Automatic annotation (TrEMBL):
The lineage of its organism: Bacteria, Bacillati, Cyanobacteriota, Cyanophyceae, Oscillatoriophycideae. GO terms for molecular function: aldehyde-lyase activity; transferase activity. Keywords: Transferase. The chain holds residues 77 to 341 of 352 of the full protein. It comes from Gloeocapsopsis dulcis AAB1 = 1H9. This is 3-deoxy-7-phosphoheptulonate synthase. Residues 16-261 form the DAHP synthetase I/KDSA domain.
Amino acid sequence: FRHGEASEVAVETPNGTVYFGQHHPVVVVAGPCSVENEAMIVETAQRVQAAGATFLRGGAYKPRTSPYAFQGHGESALELLAAARQASGLGIITEVMDAADLDKIAEIADVIQVGARNMQNFSLLKKVGAQPKPVLLKRGMSATIEEWLMAAEYILAAGNPNVILCERGIRTFDRQYARNTLDLAVIPVLRSLTHLPIMIDPSHGTGKAEYVPAMSLAAVAAGTDSLMIEVHPNPAKALSDGPQSLTPERFDRLMQELSVIGKAV
Ligand code: PEP
Ligand code: MN
């Protein structure tokens, strides 16, 4: 692993440069699990922007457990993300699942997400490492920290220094109350092992909207550089991950709570 100074990842968004890193305010990435239609993605973008988020998330290509579940609108969702970027000024983060889609995703995304299920898809890691857009690398649901850092190393070694590490919960023995176990201990652990910026995703980390605010506050208190939070205008009707999605109103309140903790926006 590389040691030394904390690195920062600078991303140009329509509203200005956003910096991910230890010496900058916490960056909040918010938005729905999936891009469903133009009205919902634009509305969500505007509402999370008004609340203080600087990035919009939203899946166009979705890694669903069941092949019969909603798979994302694909290329047409990328156009909707571009429209939401334009309407809100937010940077865009969206997932690549297949290297064949990388060029068209990189055209509209400001940061490219590699999901938990692809953390050790080494050919995909080499390809996102060989292009210039920053990469958000989610921790595999059963990945050790060393495996995660080595996956990041694939991207760095391919020539892309702009990698952000995202903890999104791991598999443990109890899935009755929470979807995953959010491993917040990675924050000090990663600080001691790597210079790369850290993101915490309490939405996938817990799977329940009611647990998300507490874990967001805890992550900021523990020193995370950024948060990823799922927000949907009508969680009960969401095509994916509704139970873990905050309403825009609850998100707005969370942003106010976070500003009290310290390093937050
Ligand atoms: C997501 O961010 O929507 C997602 C699918 O996350 P993960 O890869 O962490 O499951
Ligand atoms: Mn999701």
